[in-house]
Specification:
Rossmann fold; 7 helices; single chain; five-stranded parallel sheet; globular; alpha/beta
Length: 221
C-alpha cells in the first residue's frame, strides 16, 4: 500500500506547498482543515476545498473548533481586538492563537492513527514568520515524541515540517517549481474578498513574492 501523509492545510500558501512537497515524495495525501472561528474562516475553507480539488481525489477532513472563540486572547478569534497593521512586530504578536498548533496536532494525531498515516505534515515556518511559539522546530519535535507515546504500539508517526527553515521567498520559489496553485491560496488575517496588504501575514507574503521576483496572483486593496 502507498504510504500516507496527513497534511494540516489552512488554505494558505505554506501549508499548500507542504501538501505538494509530500505528494512529490510519494505520499498519498489526507487533507485536514480546521474552522476555528478565525476572521477569514469562510475564505480559508473555500481555498482549502479548491486546493484539494487541484490535488485530485484525496481524503479530506473539515473540523470545527468553536471553542477558540471562547478562549479568545487573539485578534484572529476575538473581534474586539484589532488586527495589527503597523508592520511586522517583534516578539509574540496579538494574532497568536494560544497553543493552536498543539491542539491541531493532537487532533491530527488521532486522525492519522485512524487513517494509518505514517506522517503528519505541517507548514510551520520558524526563521521568517510572525514569531509564534508553537511554530518552533523544538516544539514540533517534542510533540512528536508525546504523540507516539500516546498512541498504539503499532502506530509510528513522524511530524514533517519541510518549510521550517525556509524564507518566504524560497517558499514562493518552491511552490512555483512544484506547480502549487498559489492563486487559490489565502493569507490575509482580516479580509475575505480582497487581501488588506497590511497585516503581518500579508506583509510576509508580499515580501516573499517581491524577493522571489514574481507577482502575487491574489487581489490586494
Amino acid at each position: 500500500m502507498k504510504k500516507k501523509a496527513l497534511c494540516i492545510m489552512s488554505g494558505g500558501m505554506d501549508s499548500t506547498l507542504v501538501a505538494y512537497i509530500m505528494r512529490s515524495r510519494g505520499y498519498e495525501i489526507v487533507a485536514l482543515h480546521f474552522n476555528y472561528g478565525q476572521r477569514t474562516v469562510a475564505k480559508e475553507l473555500l481555498s482549502f476545498r479548491a486546493i484539494c480539488a487541484e490535488l485530485g481525489e484525496i481524503e479530506k477532513y473539515e473540523i470545527d473548533l468553536d471553542f477558540f472563540k471562547t478562549i479568545g486572547a487573539s485578534a484572529l478569534t476575538d473581534h474586539s481586538i484589532e488586527v495589527p497593521t503597523g508592520g511586522i512586530e517583534d516578539g509574540v504578536p496579538i494574532t497568536y492563537v494560544p497553543f493552536r498548533n498543539g491542539i491541531f496536532l493532537s487532533i491530527a494525531t488521532a486522525i492519522a492513527e485512524k487513517e494509518g498515516c505514517c506522517a503528519i505534515a505541517i507548514g510551520v515556518v520558524e526563521e521568517d514568520s510572525s514569531g509564534y511559539p508553537d511554530c518552533r522546530e523544538s516544539f514540533i519535535d517534542t510533540f512528536a515524541k508525546a504523540a507516539n507515546l500516546g498512541t498504539k504500539e503499532t502506530t509510528h508517526i513522524t511530524i514533517e515540517m519541510p518549510l521550517v527553515h525556509l524564507q518566504k521567498s524560497q517558499i514562493v520559489e518552491e511552490s512555483l517549481r512544484l506547480g502549487a496553485p498559489l492563486h487559490l491560496t489565502w493569507s490575509c488575517y482580516q479580509d475575505e474578498d480582497t487581501a488588506c496588504g497590511e497585516c503581518d501575514s500579508c506583509r510576509l507574503r508580499l515580501r516573499g513574492f517581491e524577493r522571489a521576483g514574481v507577482t502575487d496572483p491574489i487581489p490586494y486593496v
